[in-house]
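Model it.
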Amino acid sequence: MICVDNVNLCYPEFQGNIVNLVNMKHPILILIFCMVFIESKAQVKSQKDSTTKVLATDDYSIHNKNPSRQPGTLYTKDKATNTFTEDTTSESRLELYNKLTHQGDSLYKKNEYANAVSFYSLAFKVNGDQGKVKHRYNAACCYSVLNMNDNAFKELYRIATKGKYYNYFEISSEKKLENLHNDNRWTKVLELIKKNANAFEQKLNSEIKNQ
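Modeled.
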């Protein structure tokens, strides 16, 4: 069982099929499959196997204080003995994130923004609400095109404050974000990014002088 953003995900069946699913040519079907497992709070018990796969960050596990477990690593828990063994056959959370964002990138390039942002959002969720700046930037563009401005600004603020995004020229000339220009929050986002750009330039100049 994986704990993903306070949601219980029954992992054994899901993990074994995700590789083949992501390679399917029907992104909507893939997304529906993923969301069924992500949103489900029911605990499915396997009759064939007495083990459950868990993440080291699974706060729902009463055995989460096992000192041998490393954060972000997948383990198999034996229900009979309550012991953990590292799972070397299943995908890690990062590998799943990469597959989902790869699918999102592919849809983004095809201008399928609604489908793309669904994959980006799911990738962030399964990765503990962590995401790369480029993926959150793309997600913001998707939300803007879809007139979901609040979500777009949420992603932009995230990359400006946490990701220290500094490409002022890129964001100020991004056509997909033009829908946000008349919102008061747009100016605040640009100010944050311009501040990041100045800090990056100063750091770069300092490194050049010290060479």
